[in-house]
Amino acid sequence: MEKLVVTGPTQLKGEVEISGAKNAAVAILPATLLIDGVCTIENLPHISDIEISCEILEKLGAKITWNNKNSITIDTREIKTTKAPMDLTSKFRASYYIIGSMLGRKGEIEVGMPGGCKLGARPIDQHIKGFEALGANVTVEKGKINAKAKKLKGAPIYMDIVSVGATINVMLAAVLAKGTTTIDNAAKEPHIVDVANFLNTMGADIRGAGTDVIKINGVEKLHGDATYSVVPDQIEAGTFMLAAVATRGDITLKNCITKHLESITAKIIEVGGNVEDNIDSIRVWCNKRPNKAHIKTLPYPGFPTDLQPQMGVVLSLANGNSVINESIWESRFQYTDELNKMGAKITANGKTAFFEGVKKLSGAPVYCTDLRAGAALVIAGICAQGETDIYNLQHIDRGYEDIEGKFRKLGANIKRVTEE
Ligand code: EPZ
Q1: Is 368 a known active-site residue?
Q2: Relative to the CA of 273, which of 148, 158, 179, 366 has its CA 20 to 30 Å away?
């Protein structure tokens, strides 16, 4: 079994290169199924969710050439089946984007229910509502989703809840539909804008992505014959920004879009950190104990739920008592049990957690419960006195490219070892 062995405390210092956004890339790859052609995608994060996405696309008939570890050329002219491999699609959440793109391309798809981090119920009713509004017939039985549509027809769709996945999935299905689709109460995350930009580069006609009303004018086909570079990862960037504050270090993040980081910057300044915004890079430093804060996670442009565990480490060490309200997921405080093993004083109750700031954490064996919880435990291990062994690394490897290499470059004493 693999584990990360982290010995702290270390104040992280130096530069880190931010990779392409996981939550954009895992949608852009299935979106290539809409293209009757060949395209190249650059700045892909080299993570297991991407590797599995490519395996699924190849099983559906796509031909993929890896130009390097962060770039592929993909030929989706031949799609030979409408049945996605269940063993692969159950490994992560974003496999459900195959539904929107295959409905648009082939008018039918059979795919297993998606997997992904255990954060609560994670229903897909808004996805199904959108597909049915476009004229598809969707059934869910025996753990499989079957979707069929003779011809998708554009329609007005109002999302009952702001949903990243449903917004992207309905956008995918609408691209080749006949007529115009409007998605009202749409999610506005940077990765949604990136998927829309990718599709428009390939010949789609999508307007308003990044606002709460997205308009998609259906087109005959997407041509491909283009290269697209995935947007820098807002959540990876926020992870390193919060690591700078938690470890009282000084980190410059290269290749990021600071506009996407405004809610994190605001909170870092509020707790006493410093931020220097240089448009495509950002410097974060903190040379004193952070102040307490009240965090409420919200859809973009609010404070991202995917940075809630990482902020939890900062608040565990803050001067005073803090509160986090998690408004998106029912069960995103599992990491607090692990931080409490390290000497944190956190009381989690449903969608609220109370943090009594402590002066230091101590190393301990801890277990990742989901992707972002894993990142938080790495930060906690770097802050803690002594050795922290971090297990269940498969969660981290789904979403962070070379996490130990990037932290080691910033001075962390961290290594990946195999334990018999
Ligand atoms: C995406 O998940 C991200 N995953 C998540 O990041 C992220 O936490 C989440 O958006 C919110 O930002 C990917 O992009 C692959 P939602 P998604 O649909 O699309 C409810 C990470 O760490 N809802 O925006 O599944 C849902 O229960 C991962 O990178 C419905 O009720 O999230 C939740 O309460 C973890 N019905 C809320 O909406 C639906 O049909 C937001 O979920 C869909 C969602």
Answers
A1: no
A2: 366
Task: Answer whether 2-18+232-418 and 22-229 agree in fold.
Answer: yes
DSSP 137: E
pLDDT means per 10 residues in the chain (420 residues)?
Answer: 97 98 98 97 97 95 98 97 87 90 97 85 93 97 93 97 98 98 98 98 98 98 95 98 98 96 98 93 97 98 98 98 97 97 97 98 97 98 98 96 98 94
Mutation test residue for ligand 1: of 164, 192, 236, the one with most atoms within 8 Å of CB: 164
Which atom of ligand 1 sits closest to the CA of residue 129?
A: 40
CATH architecture for segment(s) 22-229 = Alpha-beta prism (3.65)
- For 72, the token pair is 């592929």
CATH class of 2-18+232-418: alpha beta
Distant-in-sequence, close-in-space partners of 420: CB < 8 Å, separation ≥ 6: none
Which residue is closest in CA terms to ligand 1's atom 30? Answer: 123
Distances (CA, A) of 289 to 10, 268, 359, 380: 14, 12, 8, 15
pTM: 0.97
Q: Which residues line ligand 1 (CB under 6 A)?
A: 22-23, 26, 93-94, 117, 121-127, 161, 163-166, 187, 305-306, 328-329, 371-372, 399
